[in-house]
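In this section we walk through a basic example: taking a raw amino acid sequence and producing a predicted 3D structure, encoded as discrete structure tokens. The instruction is simple. Fold the sequence below.
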Amino acid sequence: MSTLFEMLVKGGPVMIPLGGLSIATVACSLERGLFWLGVLRGEDKTAHQVLDAGRYDWDKAREIAEKSQHLAIARFMLAPLKLNRPSPETFRLAMEAAADREFIQMRKGDKLLETVVGMAPLFGLLGTVTGLIVTFLNLKIGGGANIDTTKAALGIAEALLTTAAGMVVALMALASFRLCVTLQARQMDYFAEIGSELELIYRQVWYEPSLDNYPIVTNGHLQGAIDSQLVEQLATLIHQIARKN
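The resulting token sequence is shown next.
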């Protein structure tokens, strides 16, 4: 601990903002690590439980998703599940809106890490430049006295501490940022896969079969297949009315 404090002192005033950036990077990395641990833990099991239940009991699938709302995938799947007989377009729109909300949470901290990656090396370079200026001013070249090269070399070495510190902080932030971006891309692909499978189940098992018994009227036109018994009853009724007239 004392060695770290000595390095901070030797690095000069520029080490103060570098220390702040390093603390922010570590705090953000830990927060993001806990967040992603909660997102990934058990999501695949829950997603497949919802999909399996959705093939036989839509209400059961909704109950499973409601019980697992601490998981991002469950909140994503619950959005269309809680709708009442939506059209495929409405079903997909609900999933897209839920995915957007989840991705906003997943991108938290990205701007901070990007800022640290850009600023830390610049602070390090600034500390080195100012340190070298102070070192050369203290050499007193041409004053008639012997120049102590050992002290000069030590001063230059201390000035370079800020560059090393800036690079270390930037590398830490970059590693954390790239890991977060990789996990985000993975989740986007996973959400798309699960969403497509859920929509396919809804279309094939629940929506399209219901059109056989419940024709939909849009702009005065019947959509879907009309029950053959309904057609026969309508024809019989028209025939009876014609006979009475």
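Looking at the output, two observations stand out. The mean pLDDT is 84. Residues 67 and 121 are 47 Å apart (CA to CA). In the next section we compare this with other chains.
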